[in-house]
Design goal:
Length: 79
Amino acid sequence: MPAVTVRNLPAAVHRALKLRAARNARSTEAEIRVILEEAVAPKARIKIGSELAAFGQRYGGIELNYKRDRRPIEPAEFE
């Protein structure tokens, strides 16, 4: 697992990290990991289908009269 070293961290920041970690019942290192993970993770999962539907609705959309073929799929033969 990769490791990161942070140099020249101000003493006030280090104290604040230690206090925050204590309030959350974590080690300082674990608290820093949580902060970093929250900083780079998306707040909500983007669902491409929902985004495309919303995009289409903003611009009037279209009506599709499409019926799904419910017949079973025949397996491919490679002989």
